[in-house]
What does this fold into?
Amino acid sequence: MNTTKNRFAPFYALLSKMGIPHNDRRDFLMDYTDGLTDSLSELYKTHPHVYFKMINDMEELVKKQNNELDKLRKRVIASIGGWFKLIGQESNIEIIKGTACRSTGHKDFNRIPPERLRNVYNTFLNKQKDFKALTSDMQRQLAAKTFLN
It folds into this structure.
């Protein structure tokens, strides 16, 4: 078993979760170390404290990204659920997730990228606002016609 590969497995896993291609790892290392090195093994051997700090920083960044995605997903669920409630349509979590997937063209709700989640969230919020505005206008027109008669 190659211990070097196992030693750096967390780095490569986190790099992947951050969306940084394997080919850009040297650039990432140069940026992170302020030009100190572009070699992962050299960084580990000569500056292990920097290597472990980098791993911790990467873990925190991935955790933060996951929390932001979780919040976005919950907002999407709330906005679609709010739309269904407003129009009087019964729904559950599966119907809501299915609506989000159809809206974005994705098959898995958890694979919808953040920019598309924001788009769906804003779309369904705008639908609610438009519907409420339309309903208010219709109520005013109805009240005016009733008053005239």
Summary: The chain has seven helices and no strands. The helical segments are 3-7, 9-17, 25-32, 40-46, 48-87, 93-104, 114-148.
